[in-house]
Amino acid sequence: MKSILICDDEEGIRESLKLILEKDYEVKFAGSGDEAIRKIRENPTDMVILDIKMPKKDGLETLKELKKISPGLKVIIATGYKSTDIAQEAMRLGASDYVVKPFSRDDIKRVVGKLS
To answer: Buried b vs exposed e over 24-38: b needs ≥16 C-beta within 10 Å?
Structure first.
């Protein structure tokens, strides 16, 4: 079973994504960028869903470090910003795709399924 690390500082978002994905994937969690980086170093995963706006280390900083550790890692950026500037910057830094919050069950399944 493929694994997905969900990195978001909001527990409600992590739980929502777990409910959507747990039938098809092994779901792991990180509540911060530093925790996600540590977990990827310790136990590689197939994919990361990464929130852009987090305290301390934001999603773009975390993305850069994750790609250094695992260049082939598939990273989906979750952003609450309607502007595409942040998503475009994330894609330039190596993100595989992005979703805009609030996202639907179908949005998540489509993006994750496309990258699986």
So the answer is: ebebbbbbbbbbbbe
